[in-house]
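Worked example 2:
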Amino acid sequence: KNVAGYDFIEKLSSSHRFSYRQGINGPIWEIIALNTRSYELYPDASNDDVNTFGKMIDYILKGEVVQVDGTVGGWTLSGKKPDADMTGMALQALAPYYKDETLYAKTGAKVSYADFVKAVERGVLALNNMQLDNGGFGSFGTVNSESTVQVIVALTALGFDPLASSISLTSIGKTVSFVTAGGTHDGVYSNNVIDALLT
């Protein structure tokens, strides 16, 4: 609220269009940053472009990937395939509302809570489908710790244990696990997302 006299919240509140100027990254990280201490955006009934959590959530949900084969789920900066980094980050932003319908309703998002929950769970399923045999993750064709961490943070923010043998995604009727059959990368064997990070 006061960074050398600069109120970031005032600036972020003043324009929803500004929030997505660089794409889906903007709303994702605005929500994550504002939720670090439950900061509220400043309302302004006279401003049609005033930013809200609901507008940003709707924007993120509108960016859900529809693949060429019709599969829906996950997020990316561009293209028709979900990306582990962007999906993990989007889920981190959406996580506070996942099991709290009252909090979600307060955002003013236009997407129904039921549809919101399905989008979140499709994102988790998309991550599971992107997982490598050793449990790790990559982005833009490169296996790396950052992508793996984004997934771990997303899962734990949603209340899912990355080492659970079974995670129920009840709204979409699926069950997943981020413990794999196992694989060796760079000479090191691992079979889950945590050990893959430690390698």
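The CA atoms of residues 25 and 77 lie 8 Å apart. The chain has a mean pLDDT of 96.
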